[in-house]
């Protein structure tokens, strides 16, 4: 379970950082999932920050699961 949470955390972190990089620099066009979702038009930065925060929460949850 810990490995699955860590894997999901890495995926969310990569997507969040890629979304922020795309919105702030204009590079990595079409690489992340946030840029492809039309219902997020105009809210890409908020969605990318949310993905990054969720990744940190998953890492914390994985760490707490691993101590048992």
Q: How does the SSE layout of this entry go?
A:
Elements: H1 2-25, H2 44-66
Plain-language structure description:
The structure is a single chain. This protein has helices spanning about 1-25, 45-65. The chain is mainly alpha-helical and about 70 residues long. It has one domain (about 1-65). Helix 1 packs antiparallel against helix 2 (about 45-65). Keywords: Membrane, Transmembrane, Transmembrane helix.
Q: Can you give me a brief rundown of this structure?
A:
Keywords: Membrane, Transmembrane, Transmembrane helix. With 68 residues, this protein is mainly α. It has one domain (2-66).
Provide the descriptors you would attach to this structure in a database record:
membrane; mainly alpha; elongated; 2 helices; transmembrane; 68 residues; single chain
Instruction: Indicate the radius of gyration in whole angstroms.
Output: 13 Å
Tally of individual helices: 2
Order of helices and strands: HH
Provide the number of structural domains: 1
Fraction in beta strands = under 5%
Overall geometry? elongated
Give the helix level as a range of percent: 55-70%
What distance separates the N and C termini?
A: 12 Å
Residue stretches low in confidence (pLDDT < 50, at least 5 long) are: none
Structural class computed from helices and strand pairing = mainly alpha
Output mean pLDDT. Answer: 89
The total count of strands amounts to 0
Largest sheet: none
